[in-house]
């Protein structure tokens, strides 16, 4: 069974017909040619496919494209303002927070979404005082980014990159 949907991806509008079993990840990569989100595990366990869906981070391999018609999708490719990288992208470059780069688009989108969650006052499992404004300690960042795996173990650079970006996007 097919479904006609419209999506805005990285600021550009698209209309397409998808099989109702098609994931958002497959629609982005195979139908729209957007190779920024990566297919890692295809089971929602690695985070390589993380995108922002209406501003919230989601695992695109777990979202059916037919369920998000009319949504705005932002991939790591759509975060920059023209030639100016998003503060998270700039921080990842400044801290060499990538090695092979495969997980980087998902890490970047997850970090952007996570920083928005912190700004909204959302606690995490690592938040010690649920009544206070969350503070981004290294433990807090690690907990909030736990759904994004890096096979190269670049975490030692990813966490400081997010700390730098947090100071720039608040």
Automatic annotation (TrEMBL):
Domain 2Fe-2S ferredoxin-type span(s) in chain numbering: 3-79
Gene3D superfamilies: 3.10.20.30, [2Fe-2S]-binding domain
Record GO terms (molecular function): 2 iron, 2 sulfur cluster binding; metal ion binding; oxidoreductase activity, acting on the aldehyde or oxo group of donors
Family matches, as SUPFAM superfamilies: 2Fe-2S ferredoxin-like (SSF54292), CO dehydrogenase ISP C-domain like (SSF47741)
Highest taxon, organism lineage: Bacteria
The entry's keywords: 2Fe-2S, Iron, Iron-sulfur, Metal-binding, Oxidoreductase
PANTHER family in alphabetical order: OXIDOREDUCTASE WITH IRON-SULFUR SUBUNIT, OXIDOREDUCTASE, IRON-SULPHUR BINDING SUBUNIT-RELATED-RELATED
Protein name: Xanthine dehydrogenase YagT iron-sulfur-binding subunit
Origin species: Actinophytocola algeriensis
């Amino acid at each position: 069974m097919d479904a006609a949907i419209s999506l805005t991806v990285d600021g550009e509008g698209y209309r397409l017909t998808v099989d109702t079993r098609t994931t958002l990840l497959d629609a982005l990569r195979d139908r729209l040619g957007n190779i920024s989100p990566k297919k890692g595990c295809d089971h929602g366990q690695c985070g390589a496919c993380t995108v922002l869906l209406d501003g919230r981070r989601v695992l695109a391999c777990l979202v059916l494209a037919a369920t998000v018609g009319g949504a705005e999708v932002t991939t790591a490719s759509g975060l920059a303002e023209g030639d100016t990288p998003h503060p998270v992208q700039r921080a990842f470059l400044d801290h060499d927070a990538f090695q092979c780069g495969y997980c980087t688009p998902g890490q970047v989108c997850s970090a952007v979404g996570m920083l928005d969650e912190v700004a909204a006052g959302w606690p995490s499992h690592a938040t010690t005082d649920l009544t206070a404004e969350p503070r981004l300690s290294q433990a807090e960042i690690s907990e909030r980014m736990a759904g994004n795996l890096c096979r190269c173990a670049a975490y030692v650079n990813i966490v400081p990159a997010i700390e730098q970006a947090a100071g720039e996007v608040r």
